[in-house]
Amino acid sequence: MVGYDPKKKDLTNNQILIASSVSSVIARFLLQPVDVIKIRFQLQIEPIRHATGSKYQTIFQTIRLIHHEEGLRAFWKGHLAAQFLSISYNSAQMYAFERLTKELGENFPTTVSSPIIKTLTHFFIGSIAASVAVCSCQPMDVLRTSLKAYIYASEK
User: Where does residue 148 rank: exposed (0-12), middle (13-18), buried (19+ CB within 10 A)?
Assistant: First the structure.
């Protein structure tokens, strides 16, 4: 799947979409609590120091505080919007990477012959694919973070 190999069968667009979606759903579900903690730290006005009396000071203190004040479900607030963003981003990135690698491999076969050139090619194509994904999903990320900020501010 990663990269183009002229000897192997290509994945279909649907297979790329399914693979990226399943991996996105699993990864986002597992990492959602970390994202909630990160956004709480980002939205906190006070500096993160023990002496200043800021609400969130350390990661473990933040975990305990959120769990105590809001319950375990609070770690998955905004999960649906984050899931949509994650699926969109990863699908765009995987699709762009697979298609660009295939096009390059078919039009410039020497790019897949040398290990060094292949590694550099994958690096640059991966960078381009990530750029495509960021450009296509940035508005959704801004909206998701703004919604979380609004919800967080209204709960204060």
Answer: buried
- From CA 148, how far away is CA 154, in angstroms rounded? 10
Read off the tokens for 34.
């970390």
Backbone phi, psi, residue 143, to 5°: -60, -45
When pLDDT is cut at 50, 70 and 90, the band that residue 71 belongs to is very high
**Phi and psi of 23, rounded to 5°?**
-65, -35
Take residue 45 and report the two structure tokens written for it. Answer: 């006005």
Would you give the distance in Å from CA 147 to the centre of its chain?
17
- Find tokens 């060094």 and name the residue: 116
pLDDT digits (tens, 9 = 90+) for 97-138: 988 988 887 787 766 677 888 888 889 999 999 999 999 988
- What whole-number distance in Å separates Cα of residue 83 and Cα of residue 80? 5
Asked whether 74 and 37 are in contact (CB, 8 A), the reply is no
